[in-house]
Amino acid sequence: MKINYRGIGSDLKNILFEEFRKNENTLFVFENSASFFEIKREFLQNEEIQQDLGIFQNFRLINSYDFYENVFVTNKIVVKEEKQVVLFYNSLDEKLKKRLEVSSYYDIIDIAYNYYNLFAELQEHKIDLENIELENWQKNLFETLKMVDEKVKETCQMKGLILPYMLRNVENISDNFLRKYKKICFVNKVRFSPLEKEIVKNFEEKGIIVENILQLSENDFDTKELKINESFSLPAKEIFDAKDINIEIHEFSSKFGELLGLVRKLEEVEKESKKAGKKNGALGENYRIFEAQENAEEAKSDYQLLRQQKISSNLEITMKDTKIYKILNLIYNLLDNMKEINRKSGEKLFLFRVKDLYDTYKSNDLLNIFDLKDSYYIFQNLASKDYKYISREELERINQDELKKLEKENQKEKFKDIYKKRMTAISKIIKFVEELEKVYEYTTLKEYGDYLEKIYLNNEEKVKEDKNVKDKYFEALSEMVVLEDFSFDNLWDKFFNENISANLLKLFLKYLDKKSIGLNLEETAEEDLENRFSINSFQNISENTKENIIILNLQDSFPKIRMNNFLFSKVQRAKMGLPTSDDKKLIEMFKIYQNILSAKNVYLAYVKDLEKNIDSASVIEELKLKYGIKVIEGEISEAEELYFVKKYFLKDRKEKWDKKEIGEFIQSKLEKDLEKINAEKLSLGYYSFEKMRDFEYGYYLEKLIGEQEVEKVEDELNVKIFGTIIHAFYENVVMKNKADLENKTFEIDRNQLAEILENVINSFEYKVPKEYLEFYKKVSFEEILNSAEKYFEKLIKKLETEKDIQIYFEERIKLSSEKELFENVSINGVTDLHIKTSDKNYLFDYKSGKLRDGKKGYKTDKVYKAMEQLDYYSLMLENDNNENIEKIIVDTWEGALVSDERTEDKKLTKENIEEVISRYRNNEVYDLGNFKDSKNYFYKEYANICRREDELSDEDE
Questions:
Q1: Could you tell me if residue 49 is inside a domain?
Q2: Which range of residues forms the domain containing residue 558?
Q3: Which residues form the PD-(D/E)XK endonuclease-like domain (predicted)?
Q4: Which of 169, 351, 418, 657 stands 20 to 30 A from 142 (CA)?
Q5: Are 292 and 557 in contact (CB under 8 A)?
């Protein structure tokens, strides 16, 4: 093979155009796809060379991937991408699954890809599998992989399949393809694998001339190993000085500062261009900008700050970043966490996790596709009631209950409108749920293929994705659907768990994971001609000459090399002759040196962050040391910063940019609308009264805001639900044994208690996460039964001497004598248990929270708070005289009865309540409460709104 050395910094376009003019029967193979597309574009657009060559052109340009796709042929089916994983899993017998410690398809995905990459690499570099020196921990795994390899090859042989790496063999070289060319010319192939050396030798044996055009010097290339020399580095300073290249190196302390530095540079470019009489249209072509860091998603979010009309970004992103992927992932989560319950009737009940529905309702794109926006308020109401699961059946039941309630509360004409609106909204949720239930029953890729095609095409206008996204989506879909063309028996048998549907959708998402968008290099090359600056990924930089070049974020460990070091260490790889990260880094260094040394003006920037131990990359240090280039620290004046932000970061502004200052805080005095307050009907429960008393303004704000959205849905069994279960359990026990308790014939039966508790728990099937249920049954609920036994023993003893016992539970009492307080004012509440006897009223309040403070006894503040609640409820009894009322707190954790030991001044009286309500209805300004009280949690919720310190002067305080 002839090697044509052209030296670092040479002009690739001129070199190749010189070769093209010979018009020989040559195939030019580009190792760098970006170089291929740029050269191809410039060649086709160059009128002079097109006229010289005419219509009969004997040579052809091709990138390396397409070259090998054409060189190797087979009459077998080539298995690619995710189909390789399916083949891998189908080839495993039970013995191999056990050795690999896998049980389902998704357990082996990473193992499968590691296996294919490893064995492809071993074949590519002609490694004898029997002579590899392994550590003890590696031997068992490698032996297992060799056994897998044999099984995979057996399956391929039996089914007429072949893997890409198996296809790469000189025996499969296509003579039909090669006979078209007399010469094959590689362009900048700086490393040949042992297999590629063998391929080159085969070409030459067939009489084909092989050449390699390299933009390197002879000293930079190892002709024996056919790879770039390890000693490759920047050329001497004399060579650099002769090139007369203007290199600027800029250091910034932040990425935003770097962006400002970039726009300042581009501002200078525009001014110089105008002075020279150039057209703006040439700017994008002559100034090329590249992003050095490989985290495209993070970099793209930074560049989105820039006005896209001025500076756009064309960085690689995957399908994971697209709207359609995120929508399908939400559907997958819904399906994956669905619970299927088989009823005795034979019907199936499908439970959906509310947490997943919450995520669904946060996606505007999904709400648009399934027309769910009108039902948002219904879902929020559902989430606010602590539902953890929901079903179509439960949705319908809740809706009927809600309609009955609304019908009672509203006039007939108004109810008609409410009914119509609610039925429209609920029908949309139910339709969505029904569709998911149908999809859940899918068991084949054909069914999914039709559904996924429909969901994209029917909603194309709503989602509004880029054309490239659509192409990649359907490319992945076609690749997935043909999996069932494999002639495997029971293809999906034992592949997944019982939820086949969710796993098939996950399979499609895995296909999408592999698809990159925004990297159509042919289109990128065209876009660079547009009237704007474009930021591209350094990963896609060509070796073609760029007159002016900007490279950003040259810090940290650039270039970062992704190496799959599965099984073998770096030292082992080097010893075996496999490429290491150092080998790949040399190739990336060649690309950056070539671009820097072939340009006229170079702008390099990096971000230095000493706190994170981030400094300039090695390429910057080499340029500084070898060529004596000084670093320019990126200081930007305030005036420049404001100008650049206005021009490059904001949309077009027609209004004048005026400097605005934040003035002093203006006190509002928080004045009340007393006329409105006194006219409205006020019904106060205890908690509302408490808020009014402790923090009037917060009470007003809460009423003003109304029902707030649920911001987070958790799977855990929260304290609120736990308390509700406890209350329901105690109430059901009393309800079931009411007559016996009243007749003093009640006997505690633990089996009955356990049955009632079990039934109560089951009634909360939509509110108690299934995965937590068994845990709580074993731990907490047994303790509840023990406590309940203690409680009822004490209750029986307390009622032993009482006569004429009457029991009321969860009794709702509304004060009828409203005039005794104020006009339009009433109080209401719920007492957990009210027992009336011949001469006494007992009021019980069940508390599931922690009342004890270790061995110190009961927490006074907790008990007093609970007792105050009973004070409030006691005022709603017909007889307001508290002398015949006994208030008892039930500690449900210990089954203990906590009696009222407060002094009279600690009790809440009717006069206290009247005083609070009178202040609310008559004082002209809202009271802000005691903000220094650490227990005033309600104040803390609105602290940033009311700003007590600013609202009140020193005198007020």
A1: yes
A2: 237-315+539-644
A3: 696-914
A4: 169
A5: no
Residues 937 and 824 grouped into a single domain: yes
Name the pTM for this structure: 0.75
Same domain, 177 and 37: yes
395 and 474 within one domain: yes
Burial of 266 (0-12, 13-18, 19+ CB in 10 A): buried
Tens of pLDDT, residues 235-282? 999 999 999 999 999 999 888 888 888 888 888 888 887 777 655 444
Which of 488, 518, 548 is the last residue in one of the domains? 518
DSSP secondary structure string, 212-229?
A: EEESS-GGGEETTTTEE-
Same domain, 790 and 905: no
**Considering the domain boundaries, does residue 662 fall inside one?**
no
Structure tokens at 510: 């895995």
- Provide the total of helices (H) and of strands (E) in the chain, helices listed first: 43, 27
Tokens of 840: 């006494």
Give the separation between CA 101 and CA 85, rounded to whole angstroms: 16
Give the pLDDT score at 940.
63
Q: Are residues 270 and 289 in the same domain?
A: yes
Residue 834 dihedral angles phi and psi, to the nearest 5°:
-125, 120
Same domain, 931 and 917: yes
In single-letter form, the type of residue at position 131 comes to: N
Measured distance CA(857)–CA(854) in Å, rounded: 7
Q: Are 145 and 118 in contact (CB under 8 A)?
A: yes
As given in the structure block, the two tokens for residue 295 are 């985290």
Domain count within the chain: 6
Helix boundaries (H) for 548-637: 570-576, 581-597, 618-627
Does a structural domain hold residue 448? Answer: yes
CB atoms near residue 889 (< 10 Å): 26
| Residues 160 and 216 occupy one common structural domain | no
CA distance to 62, 366, 448, 455, per residue, from 369 (Å): 42, 5, 18, 8
Phi then psi dihedrals of residue 555, to 5 deg: -125, 175
* Cα maximum dimension of the chain: 120
Domain's final residue, options 489, 518, 547: 518
- Examine residue 659 and state whether it is found in any structural domain, yes or no: no
Indicate whether 804 pLDDT > 70.
Answer: yes
How far apart are alpha carbons 247 and 50 in whole angstroms?
A: 35
Identity at 353, one-letter amino acid code: R
Instruction: Tell me the backbone φ, ψ of residue 523, rounded to 5 degrees.
Output: -70, -35
- Same structural domain, 684 and 705: yes
